[in-house]
What we know:
Two copies of one chain form a homodimer. The longest helix of chain A has 28 residues, at 15-42. In chain A, 69% of the residues lie in helices and 0% in strands. In chain A, helix 4 packs parallel to helix 7. Chain A has helices at residues 15-42, 45-52, 56-62, 66-89, 99-119, 121-134, 138-164, 173-193, 210-223. The relative contact order of chain A is 0.10. Chain A is an all-alpha fold. Chains A and B meet through helix 1, helix 5, helix 6, helix 7 and helix 8 of A and helix 1, helix 5, helix 6, helix 7 and helix 8 of B. Chain A binds a DNA duplex through helix 2 and helix 3.
Amino acid sequence: MSFDTAPPPDDTLGRRDRERLARRRAMLDAALGVFGDKGFDGATVDEIAERAEFGKGTLYNYFPGGKDELYLTLFEDVVVGNLHRVLDATLATASFATAGDVRAAYCTFVEGVFVNFETHRPQHMLFMRDGERMMLDPDKAAFFGDLFDRFVERVAAPLDAAIAAGLVRPLPSRPVAHLLMGTVRGYLIADDETRCLPKGRPKPSPFATPGEAASFITSVFFDGLLAQPAVPADPA
Amino acid sequence: MSFDTAPPPDDTLGRRDRERLARRRAMLDAALGVFGDKGFDGATVDEIAERAEFGKGTLYNYFPGGKDELYLTLFEDVVVGNLHRVLDATLATASFATAGDVRAAYCTFVEGVFVNFETHRPQHMLFMRDGERMMLDPDKAAFFGDLFDRFVERVAAPLDAAIAAGLVRPLPSRPVAHLLMGTVRGYLIADDETRCLPKGRPKPSPFATPGEAASFITSVFFDGLLAQPAVPADPA
DNA sequence: ACAAGACGTGACCCATCGGTCACGCGTGTT
DNA sequence: AACACGCGTGACCGATGGGTCACGTCTTGT
């Protein structure tokens, strides 16, 4: 597991500063691993320090806020950062001429989220699992709520354009975006729940690739379940 | 907060047995409150015992498995029990003649879940928040996965009928049910996340009543987002 | 009325863990 | 080469909380 967030090391930085940066990264990397494996409450600062191959004191030099600071930093930089980057690479750069374009753009976006999830499962499970727990603390709740809210806003923006162009039904865009993100999240959580099933029960989500799962969700979301209108699904 | 799950006290039981039952209930009730307020890790057995107005030792007499046993019992009896009862009262008794029937039945079901959620927020947050954390332990993961799986199966069954009748597109029913439950869950989680928002940001989900939220989700799910087919939404 | 046992009790035990701090090594400076 | 200081270090501390157990009380059966 490794970051793909940090900006390329800036050559204008002194050696000392670069070393500091590298250590910070190593520590966050280790924290990510431990948090991912054990969850927030299950993780211990000792184990993080050990995995980072530093003394616990050193860790507190770099992150005086301790466990919480590590977690929140990780969350904002890595998890939310990843999601925004997926968004940048898909929805944010899309332009719509037809309803099929909208559908395809959101499908690509959702697929991107799933791929990102596959690649960085631990940090996302961290998000899914412990983010919600943080809601119990009002300060953290505000922090998380704000991050989520900002993200939803960016997901909603292209929808507004599509609605203005008459390509999508005039539903309120923010609730739709909210629902879409909730769906993705709920799907991933529920999927994880059935990952290690007892006996030989058939998995309820038999999608082999993120692409299949994404087009399934997109199909439901954009075309609806009903047979009546027999939507001629626009090939991307 | 109080149970609405326990079967009416059986008169065939001796006084001793009825007392035991009542105490169990009081303990579970207290545990539910504390877990709901503090989360699984945040809750302490002492506080549960105190709120139940019993000694800690007594609590261990009734639940030798301690904290875990309390939590798992609670989860299965209360949370999953509630959901099954909602399902019994809605989907399980519905019969479909038209596509509108299907749509209405699932809308009622989703609304039922939302209403239940409003009424029993703590236990459901317990489910949302800490259920996922339990996945880290393989044994518990099997337990939760199985419960969820069984529930999904029941949600999927009416869909099969609707598909067989040609009312719903021939999508695989279990993944659809899986997705629907994931959506509801994701919606509720995301909604909770924005419940205590900083500043005066507009809430992304402005639905005042469970009914509105449910018909919104149903509309997206059944009619799709696209404007093209202009689905004539069947009034229930 | 007395004995016996069932059951509630909370003080106690000990493991765990987040966080601290006095020490000393190594680096860079004079 | 000697000195000084930044910084890494891990032993240590205090709090917390899950789980136990010897004791007392209250019911029950004789």
